[in-house]
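PROTEIN–LIGAND DATA SHEET

This sheet pairs a single protein chain with one bound small molecule, zinc ion, given as SMILES. Inputs appear in the order they were entered. The predicted three-dimensional arrangement of chain and ligand is reported afterwards as a token string under its own label.
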Amino acid sequence: MKILFILSAFALVGSCATKKYAVKVQDLKDSIQIVDSSLVVKYSNTITTEELRNHLYTLTSDTFKGRFTGEMGQKMAANLIKTYYQNQQISSPFGNDNYFQIIPESFLPKDTKASENIVAFIKGEENPDEILIISAHYDHLGVTKGGEIYEGADDNASGTSAVLEIAQAFKLADNDGFRPKRSILFLNLTAEEIGKQGSEYYTLHPIFPLENTIADLNIDMIGRFDEIHKNNKDYLYLIGSDRLSNELHYLSEKVNTTFSKLTLDYRYNAENDSNRYYERSDHYNFAIHGIPVIFYFNGEHADYHKPTDTSDKIDFEILAKRTKFIFATAWQLANMNQRIKVDNGIIY
Ligand SMILES: [Zn+2]
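PREDICTION REPORTED AS:
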């Protein structure tokens, strides 16, 4: 009887704890309110397959010679991206016509020339000091010894094109009087392929204080599908969303169920995932400074880091759907009442 009593007392404690835990998650989910639904839909629709296709085919053309860090092709791509922001009348965070954050040669591996991050900015209306970063690297692997160009269509002309379309969508909303509450920095990063030095440099020399940087949404390869999902292309891998902020994770989930209905696949978010993708793209440099991140990724494929990663293999329908989902998430982060909380840790 005594033993049984002790056991049932334990069971009681256990169930209470479990209930508390479940309630905590439910409370968090219930507290998340989607804002501006109709505006999100309206400006999502400015993100089109045609424009994504134009950006991507331009970035991958031979002119840019595989966009290798520090080389002429990368610099021409940087100028192309800068010109795009200027044409869209999206300003520089420096307040002039300089859109480049220069990474000096001394910061880069031996024999690599100085290179540029490109930065564009929409200033927030109510909390301009709070900054949301939307990032993607635009550099790639250059040219093979045999002279074949690495187009890097998926890696990462797809993410770069997505950032350009998201920036335009926010700017069109701004033009119509719907400026975001918080500021948004569009960050086109260099030197990812040679060791993520573009994002490392940014976080060591941030244009805006890192403590006011509310999150980084980082896009690296979102224009293709992998073997696992060949029968359901409407998916996306999300990595990191719950590592620093449960609120970010559940917000992202709610945005998806409200607007996008993609299959969000978290298999690579597992702490013991042998691919270690969480550490392998630019968001990681923000995460190590305690800034919540989401890494958006379609997984690897046979053309990964090969000259055969070409534009003709991009699925523009799915690229557009994923871009709209990221835009909708960014809209919430920029416009929700309180900035996203860093509530550390996984509670499910
Ligand atoms: Zn990449």
